[in-house]
Model the fold of this input.
Amino acid sequence: MLPFIKTIFNHRFFAWLVLAIPAPALLADVFTRERYYAEIMYESGLLSVQLLVLALALTPLMRLSKKWAKVRIVIRWLILHRRAVGVASFGYAALHTYFYLREVGSLELVWLELSEISLTTGWLAFAILLVLAATSNMFSVLRLGKNWKPLQRGAYIAAVFTAIHWYFIGQYQMELLLWFTPLAMLQMMRLTR
Done:
């Protein structure tokens, strides 16, 4: 690869551009409100989950891909930009939350709905992702020191809450299994080594 192209390809702004590709379609609905609520909730939630699962699966995938050089190139690039992948997951979760709040229309109703496990776990996952996104910067890395990495491992807890949230919402259960089963298997393999 030419050095100039490699520099662009590895630049963090290029990573942000790639991660933002789905955003315009979702953001358009913020202004137009033309899409069905269920559709926009599904798309924003799924993007958040896909990016969260990807961020958590990268290390075990790197270990598994030792024999596949081309796959390792992609995984290395993703690992280089893992922080951006995690923050993008939060960004799509924030859009998901915004669409929910817009639909409900009242903080009082949000408060009343907190008794439902599907919503409580969703809010807990969102709160964890918010903390992780807020501390995904060099200032926080330097300020927190050795405590930064354990804090960022809270993403696993967010993933568990997200899976519970999705399960109790009661829709698209096969997709829930499609995204979280491989992640669980990769993490079990990682723990047994």
Observations:
- The longest helix spans residues 37-64.
